[in-house]
Amino acid sequence: MGGGIGGLTAAIGLRAAGWDVTVYERADAPPATGTGLGIWPSALRALDGLGLGGEVRTAGLPQGNGAIRRPDGSRIVALDMDAVTARHGEPVHLVARPALLGVLHGALPAGVVRFGAPVGDATALRTEHDLVVAADGIGSRIRTALFGDRHGLRYTGATVWRGTADLDTDAGGETWGVGARFGVTPQGPGRTNWYAVVTAPEHHQPALPAPDELRRIFGGWHDPIPAVLDRYATSDVIRHDLHHLAPALPSYVHGNVALLGDAAHAMTPDLGQGACQAVIDGAVLAKCLADGDVPAGLREYDRRRRRPTQRMAATSLLVNRMSQARRFLPLRDLVLRTALSLGGPPA
């Protein structure tokens, strides 16, 4: 269930292994707009295993070196993508969400994905099918039905605006202020992804309209941030509060149901790994079930994916807490530099 990145990846892999697959997607059509995603080498290798890695690379562009900076433009730490390439054979690729979903949809025959088909209760599906893959997102109803309200979404203390601007940027990165940060990444010629994260109460509604509120907070920060905000009116902007799943699930499987992606391990976006881990979940699940032994395959999927993704989620939450710091900023910057020098971001 769920025609997002993880659900489609699982569907492609399972069909290749001989399964008869149906994807139930509540939206009426694939999304036409969306911001960019960083697809790391591990996820690209998983897509290579499905024969789709080349298409995804072509749909995006390699991410160049960048930096995390202070609002005045001074650098806290470099983001060395050359080091990622040296360790893993290729860089991170920046791909627009609609483009990635387009590649995944294109790998499935017409009719496999049923649009406008929300699933309110998985009980019938569990009875009628050998396997149910719950890829129904961060607010997964299936997760709640199987594991209860104890494992739910927790507010991180921050809200985010995401958009794209008609603007060229040479390099990506983030700028960390006091309880606020701003990020930009190139999307292609004349297009830049951006996001603005602000510490705020949950469901907070600023007194000012969004463009004015963001200019109030970020308008005096270094270039190109003011230029990005000047193009707010022509951006496709979404805003939402940031949540993560806590406590972590005791298992990613229950009977003949497997959870993957945000349904299994909703994490903050601070490592840029949400989409990547959903891709890997889907590919691994398909491999584990290739021989048709559902109980053994689901046990193996849980063994291979639960601990790595939960460690990733915990690390991402730690970075989130650091980025929202309002005191001891020199110590924060030192910890960040040390962490990146010891191994860098996961690839």
Please tell me about this protein's structure.
With 347 residues, this protein is α+β, with helices and mostly antiparallel strands. The chain has a domain at 5-63 and 90-153 and 245-323: 3-Layer(bba) Sandwich (FAD/NAD(P)-binding domain), CATH 3.50.50.60. 39% of the residues lie in helices and 22% in strands. The chain has helices at 5-16, 41-49, 53-59, 81-88, 97-106, 123-128, 141-147, 210-218, 225-230, 262-265, 274-288, 294-323, 329-342; strands spanning 23-25, 36-39, 61-62, 66-69, 75-79, 93-96, 113-115, 132-134, 152-165, 173-176, 180-188, 191-199, 238-246, 253-254, 257-259. Strands 5-4-10-11-12-9-13 form a seven-stranded mixed β-sheet, sandwiched between helices. A three-stranded antiparallel β-sheet has the order 2-6-3. A three-stranded mixed β-sheet has the order 8-15-14. A hairpin with a 2-residue loop joins strand 11 (180-188) and strand 12 (191-199). The longest helix has 30 residues, at 294-323. The protein is globular, with a radius of gyration of 20 Å.
